[in-house]
Design a protein that fits this description.
Layout lengths: L13 E5 L5 E11 L2 E9 L7 E3 L4 E2 L6 E7 L5 E8 L2 H5 L7 E4 L3 E5 L23 H4 L9
Antiparallel strand pairs: 1-2, 1-9, 2-3, 3-8, 4-6, 5-6, 6-7, 7-8
């Protein structure tokens, strides 16, 4: 029997909110670290956060690796909140990664633990519905109170 050292199923699912305007950006967030520099904390998600962010500016490449990135900004306030990995480099693809290509800066967003259907326990990635079962409505159905601190 083999075990996957890169398993993320026991990680908590987070609701990600813009620090500037408290807009819900994603209901499928995960705490992460930058693969090219593990000292940098980030949040990530596995599906495009439509109706919450949009692309801004031009594509660029990182200095540490060869990933092609494009910044994303909150649709409500316009502040840059992260970036999308448009084309991941082979080095990052071969690293232990969670398969998420939508990244959020910890200086621009904050998280709240997402609860499971009972409303009592923190939802874990291993119990999260498949991507096909989730829709953009997941983000829209989360009340603004989830992002108010």
């Amino acid at each position: 029997m083999t075990t996957n050292i890169c398993s993320f199923k026991d990680r908590c699912v987070s609701i990600l909110c813009c620090k500037f305007c408290k807009q819900v950006l994603s209901s499928r967030g995960m705490k992460a670290v930058l693969l090219a520099d593990t000292e940098i904390d980030l949040f990530s998600t596995d599906i495009p956060p439509t109706n919450a962010v949009d692309f801004t500016g031009r594509c660029y490449f990182t200095k540490i690796c060869k990933c092609k990135l494009k910044d994303i900004a909150c649709l409500k306030c316009g502040n840059i909140v992260g970036y999308h990995v448009i084309v991941p480099c082979s080095s990052c693809l071969l690293s232990c990664n969670n398969g998420h290509f939508w990244m959020f800066h910890s200086r621009a967003v904050y998280d709240t633990n997402r609860l499971d259907s009972t409303g009592v326990n923190v939802l874990l990635w291993g119990n999260l519905p498949e991507i096909e079962e989730s829709t953009d409505e997941d983000v829209l159905n989360i009340s603004a109170e989830e992002c108010i601190r």
